[in-house]
Design a protein that fits this description.
There is one protein chain. This protein is an alpha/beta fold. The protein is built from eleven helices and 26 strands. Bound molecules: alpha-L-arabinofuranose (AHR).
Amino acid sequence: MKLLRSTVVLAALAALCSLGRAADPTAHLIIDAARTGPVINKNIYGHFAEHLGRCIYEGLWVGENSPIPNTKGYRNDVVAALKNLQVPVLRWPGGCFADEYHWRDGIGPREKRPAMINTHWGGVVENNHFGTHEFLNFCEMMGIEPYVCVNVGSGTVQEEMEWIEYMTSDADSPMANLRRANGRDQPWKVHYVAVGNESWGCGGNMTAQFYADNYRRYNTFVKNYGTNRIQRIAGGPNDFNYEWTQTLMKSAAKQMNGLSLHYYTRTTTGWPPKGSATEFDETQWINVLVNTLKMEELVTNHSAIMDQYDPQKKVGLVVDEWGTWYEKTPGSRQGFLEQQNSLRDALVAALNLHIFQAHADRVTMANIAQFINVLQAMILTDKEKMVITPTYHVFEMFKVHQDATSLSVALSSPDYVLGDAKIPAVSASASRDKNGRIHLSLTNADPAKPVTVTCTLNGAVAKSVSGRVLTAPAMNAHNTFVAPHTVEPAAFGGAKLDGGSLSVTLPAKSVVVLELL
Ligand code: AHR
């Protein structure tokens, strides 16, 4: 009966939708506030900061003696911008860098720390001035949960075990005392540990079974000291490698709290990534959106495999690297993965966040790559200058969903079609926060046509609606140091409440977040 009812509803929605398509595209949305889903783990809004290019050095950390205004070495402008973002969790030190990182090189007086070569990222000399204390103190200062990736590829179990003790033990123990000697009395709280990174590739080129066995071994020595309790994340598959997930879940599901997944959105398949971040036509616009929507397929299929071994969904899918990857910014250094960030990236961010929220029963964390100056960044810096990106604005607008309860949405959208490419024009997600406020986020991927969304709100009464919109006249609009406000949120007047029904006219190529009271 229930199935029949929802089939009838969807058929009616589809019929309405096709009626509307000829003239002005119309989408239809039913939000059922009485049918609540899982809580949207705030960690879905997580970030990733690797020792890569200018992410850490110059981006976050300039050192105490820098002429760039800073507090204890962290740049003030970046810290202020990040505070408004409500960053829940931050993954560090890599990425590929993690499997060549030896944590003892990054403690003690900075001038005495040994240097190393960052072989993956530009072959630059890493002076280790940003190490365990600098990372964990930053997280503590910002109220961010640290997510530490330990070295499995080139590190020993002993090294891993001692690092965990150094960070989290409150005992009168050798590593805790070494930490005290380095100026930190109390242990930090570290609740998330990744055991290796991309062990199928830069993390050691292992087979799935070899890594699964190694995961079990390394994981055994990730200890809980004092009151600290660690969630252990196993290194998961690259995009469509379902065999990896199968093997890991079969061999080690009981030993893990999370399994990672990496998927980057590119303009086409193949490496190195092709296509400019800012110089693109509509074909590349839609191609990127088509490719980013493959995240839905990936999350669905990897979750289905996980269900076979973990039907109670105790193991989270942790999408700890995602985002766009284009050709590097012309003139920027090889291996630094610098790219601009346009309105297209804002759409990519919103679509992925909607996918993660729709799978909040399985996706417990996601970390966009990367925080500052690398790939799909929140912030770009150039010496003393800083600019925030369209992707930052999406994360800021969407923060209302963090830890809110997801609400059931049934959406029927017109298609946005270009040549052979076709995607739904509209995407939507709704949640109710702890204060009872309902938030609805919507995107319109069509770069030329507005879409009107007629919404029925069941199970709740809304008396007022307000919101913000992120859009711009051009598909490739982006913020620069010279013009930093080209793409930024504005008050939205396109939503109207009439009795129980809500009508929202989404501008072309836009992201909208509404609050219903
Ligand atoms: O985010 C850049 C790199 O992409 C990471 O270091 C690696 O894990 C992935 O291949």
